[in-house]
Specification:
The protein is α+β, with helices and mostly antiparallel strands and 170 residues long. Helix content is 24%, strand content 19%. The protein has helices spanning 21-24, 52-59, 77-81, 138-160, and strands at residues 6-7, 13-14, 85-90, 93-101, 104-111, 117-121. Strand 5 and strand 6 form a beta hairpin.
Length: 170
């Protein structure tokens, strides 16, 4: 699937309203038929939807376009683990996962309608009702905001001239 589903969590039903974990945390299953792949896909790597197409192309031994930001999940685990951020957005809510601290997956999100900010450590399976933004060092929060602004600028540049941005979103 390309999204999860809320079944009453946080007062929501369906999927197009928010960026809570039941919507974003989606299993990815890939079955191989008729051959034994040489490449292993690790089950413990945090991935994004942008990784699905490169994963399929890698399985077919077709190189991904250089302009793609996604990584094939068959890539060596070190390359996947070196990725620092994964981004998300749904309507007015957007943010990032910070993958830099092994064992601690932080999620930072902003609601552009009401300007609220939230930080959750989603690796501990809490229900995202406790905003832990006050625990985040100012320098780290600044880095998160900077990365989100860079992404917005890259997306804006890409929308205005797609040929200019082979390096967009890297």
């Amino acid at each position: 699937g390309d999204h999860g589903e809320l079944l009453g969590e946080h007062g929501y039903y369906a999927h197009a309203h928010t960026v809570y974990e039941p919507v974003l945390n989606i299993p990815f299953l890939m079955l191989r038929y008729g051959y034994e792949s040489k490449a292993h896909i690790s089950g413990d790597v945090v991935a994004s939807q942008i990784d699905i197409a490169p994963t399929i192309l890698a399985e077919l031994d077709i190189p991904s376009p250089k302009s793609w930001a996604g990584l094939p999940l068959q890539a060596n685990a070190k390359a996947l683990r070196e990725r620092r951020f994964i981004y998300f957005q749904q309507q007015a809510e957007y943010g990032l996962f910070d993958l830099s601290q092994p064992g601690h997956l932080w999620k930072y999100r902003i609601n552009s309608d009401d300007r609220s900010e939230w930080a959750h450590e989603v690796s501990n399976k809490r229900d995202e009702t406790d905003n832990r933004l006050h625990e985040i060092p100012a320098a780290l929060k600044t880095e998160w905001i900077k990365r989100l602004l860079e992404l917005q600028m890259s997306a804006h540049e890409y929308a205005s001239d797609p040929l200019k941005t082979d390096q967009a979103l890297h």
